[in-house]
Specification:
Elements (H helix, E strand, L loop, with lengths): L4 E6 L5 E3 L19 H10 L8 E5 L4 E5 L3 E6 L2 E7 L2 E4 L5 E4 L4 E7 L4 E6 L1 E3 L29 E7 L17 E6 L8 H9 L2 E3 L7 E5 L14 E2 L4 E3 L7 E3 L6 E2 L3 E5 L1 H8 L6 E6 L2 H21 L2
Parallel strand pairs: 13-21
Antiparallel strand pairs: 1-4, 1-12, 2-3, 3-10, 4-9, 5-8, 5-10, 6-7, 6-9, 11-12, 13-20, 14-15, 14-21, 15-18, 16-19, 17-18, 17-20
């Protein structure tokens, strides 16, 4: 029997294991998956002294309630998350981007995200997980990844293979900022849409629908008119591409998206804005702003540089 483990007292909403995802499998219909918010994923692992590619627990809206048994470990939670740690008779209010120690018998209660969607829990150790195509990332639509490709459930145990002995306290001063405009480049079917449809796409406001998940984000707003064909021969899709079906309401493909699709593509969210996009909860208002490919590449380099600077601040 493993001596270091978490018991799930409450599973939370869509709690899964995620890492960097799966590369170069689009040709067999397997998307990247992986952590939705890559920056917060990387920061969580760095805070507890793990290697960059280690799996973490990703949760949406409400996280799990966990009881820990075993040797002392460090944990860190990133995102905009409310959580507490119960140590015998003491109840500690947690702070994101800061390590906390857990002793045997302690309870970690990840209560909720705060006006955002995803949060991340990293532990100073290695989860006992099965890998599939070099990743443990769970895709519940395809039943791929650790835990049989299913989200975690109440009364499960999460075993740890190893404990990272680096128990020093770490803290990062970082605030998740919101984004006013989601920047996009033109899609391959941009000219399928009327001038008025293009104007609506680039100038009007859209509302994020409740019908959004790790696979896609559905938007509601003024109809984007297609003047060529509302269905095309199925083509390859990438993360961030924006399809417009016959009803005229855009759908943004997210990390667990299907790898092919037959709706015309009006645009693609630039990689530098993806992390902030996925953290917008249903009901949020968003607007799109067009940028050129060169600008998109420059913005991504700046995003990566800022991420690395944040990681380097964690000694």
């Amino acid at each position: 029997m493993n001596k270091n483990y978490f018991k799930i007292l409450r599973a939370g909403i869509n709690t899964t294991f995620q890492d960097e995802g799966r590369k170069n499998l689009y040709h067999i219909g397997i998307p990247f998956s992986g952590a939705m918010d890559n920056r917060n994923y990387l920061l969580a692992n760095r805070l507890v002294g793990n290697k960059p590619g280690f799996p973490v627990l990703e949760f949406a809206y409400q996280g799990p309630l966990l009881k820990y048994k075993g040797e002392k470990i460090n944990i860190a939670i990133t995102g905009d998350v409310n959580f507490t740690i119960k140590k015998k008779d003491d109840l500690i209010s947690g702070n994101c981007y800061q390590t906390f120690s857990l002793d045997s018998g302690d309870e970690l209660n990840i209560i909720s995200t705060n006006k955002s969607v995803y949060g991340y829990l990293a532990v100073s150790g290695e989860f006992d997980l099965k890998y599939q195509w070099s990743s443990c990332s769970i895709n519940t639509k395809a039943n791929i990844g650790a835990n049989g490709g299913k989200k975690l459930e109440t009364n499960q145990k999460i075993n740890l293979l190893k404990i990272n002995k680096n128990s020093s306290s770490k803290k990062l001063h970082y605030i998740n900022t919101k984004i006013e405009n989601i920047r996009v480049i033109k899609g391959t079917n941009f000219d399928y849409f009327s001038d008025e449809g293009k104007k609506i796409f680039l100038e009007k406001e859209f509302t994020i629908s409740k019908l959004s998940d790790r696979m896609g984000m559905r938007l509601e707003g003024l109809k984007i008119e297609n003047i060529v064909d509302t269905n095309i021969k199925s083509e390859g899709l990438i993360k961030g591409v924006i399809q417009v079906p016959a009803d005229g309401n855009p759908i943004i493909m997210l990390s667990d998206h299907g790898t092919i699709g037959g709706y015309p593509k009006i645009g693609v969210v630039i990689s530098a804005d993806y992390d902030k996009l996925v953290q917008l909860p249903p009901g949020s208002k968003i607007k799109f702003k067009e940028v050129g490919l060169t600008d998109a590449e420059t913005l991504f380099k700046l995003y990566e540089l800022e991420t690395q600077n944040l990681i380097s601040q964690i000694s």
